[in-house]
Amino acid sequence: MVNPKRMTIHLENWNLKPPKIPQRSRLFSLEPVAVGTPYAESLSSYLHRLAQEHCLTSQKLVMGEIAPLILKNEDKSELLKKNVSHLLGNSDAKPAINGMREMTGQLVTVLEELTMRQDLRFLTLLSWKGMIYDKGLFRKYRAWCPCCWEEWRQKNTTIYEPLLWSFKDVEFCLIHKQRLIEECPHCGSHLPAIAKLSPAGFCSRCYGWLGQEIKGEEEIEEYRVKIQGISELIALTPQLGYEPIPIELTRKLQLILLVFEQAIGKDLLLLGDLGRIIESLKIASKTNQNQPYHLLKLIIPVCEKARISVYQLFRSDFRELGKILFENFGLELKL
Ligand SMILES: [Zn+2]
Ligand SMILES: [Zn+2]
Predict the structure, then answer these.
(1) DSSP character for 152?
(2) Coil, strand, or helix at residue 172?
(3) CB contact at 8 A, 212 and 180
(4) From the CA of 144, which ligand is nearest?
(5) Cα separation values, 171 from 94, 234, 243, 296, 302, Å
(6) pTM for this one?
(7) Which ligand is nearest to the CA of 178?
(8) Can you tell me the mean pLDDT for 220-228?
């Protein structure tokens, strides 16, 4: 038995203050997949995975947790009984929700608040608002590469939908050289980006598995530049930060125009290759003073003709870009 007289209690060493418990998030702070890479997850995919983590349908998550923070004047218990379409109208349930719609911004704000994360806007194109024109940029329905999903299932990695697949001009998977599918092979349905219950990799109508191993490859070279350009844009989104500066892009495009003109001055044969893009650049620089630019009709083709990547266009500063461009066309640097 311990003799109490021999016990020494170092009271001064006891910290009687309650321990500091970090603030808890209302929802699980689920990490989004592959942020900062071309295969970054889309917002709609994140939302469905978050619902799954909480063992909820997406409808319950949206109407029970998210909608009350957006539709603040409506009764919470009434909202829970309603369908997601009460919050997300027809157009907000489409892949464009992963772009830069007003509802995209509201969903991101609320989800970041509920999960205490700061990286969810990178699952969308919100950072590009004001810089890139979003009309016609996105598909009407979900699209997927069945080979990617089948491969991820076999490797037992997270099954999700990359933001890349939301873009209308991403018609092929560059990894598997397969056309993206827009129709469920089991029930023939076109699927909305946000549905009542939409587990990743499954049809939200018939719940059939949408992954499939396909042998053989399709010819995709003519699509590569567009898909690569969009991939680079997605990957560099987190580096763009929160404040897009459209005027910087305008200045860079003007610089490219100057380089094209000088290049033609030196070698008239380039006129055939650069003539049309120069006209587009001239029109854009006149009309686009404060307007967003067209990604597929202008930014990506300009980069291709200027022999630079989309990454170089946005990440190089003005001087660096000038150096690269003048070198590409064998011109003397005179800025
Ligand atoms: Zn694939
Ligand atoms: Zn189906």
Answers:
(1) H
(2) strand
(3) no
(4) 1
(5) 17, 16, 30, 13, 21
(6) 0.91
(7) 1
(8) 95
Q: Give the integer Cα–Cα distance in Å for 279 and 304.
A: 15
- DSSP string for residues in 282-304: HHHHHH-SSSPBPIIIIIHHHHH
56 CA distance to ligand 1 centroid (A)? 28
Cβ proximity of 197 and 58 under 8 Å = yes
Structure tokens at 158: 């997270």
Distance 203 CA to ligand 1 centre (A): 17
Give strand pairing partners of 202.
209
CA of 220 to the centre of ligand 2 (A): 27
Question: How much is the pLDDT for 284?
Answer: 85
Q: According to the model, what pLDDT value does residue 107 have?
A: 98
Closest ligand (CA of 209): 2
Torsion angles phi and psi, residue 202, rounded to 5? -120, 155
Please state, in angstroms and rounded to a whole number, the distance separating the CA atoms of residues 299 and 249. Answer: 10
Ligand 1 mean position, distance from CA 248 (Å) = 35
C-alpha to C-alpha distances, 284 to 132, 234, 293, nearest whole angstrom: 12, 23, 8
CB-based burial, 60-96: b 16+ in 10 Å, e otherwise: bbbbbbbbbbebeeeeeeebeeeebebbbeeebbbbb
Count of other CB atoms within 10 angstroms of residue 109: 15
Q: Where are the alpha helices (DSSP H) in 20-129?
A: 43-53, 58-61, 67-70, 76-81, 102-115
State the pLDDT confidence band at 209, using cuts at 50, 70 and 90. very high
> By C-alpha distance, which of 20, 28, 72 is closest to 47?
28
Q: How many CB atoms lie within 10 A of CB 108?
A: 20
Task: Identify which of 102, 118, 98 has the alpha carbon closest to the alpha carbon of residue 47.
Answer: 98
Rounded to whole angstroms, the Cα distance separating 303 from 299 reads 6
DSSP calls for 201-223: TB-TTT--B------S----HHH
Q: Which residue has the tokens 């150096």?
A: 323
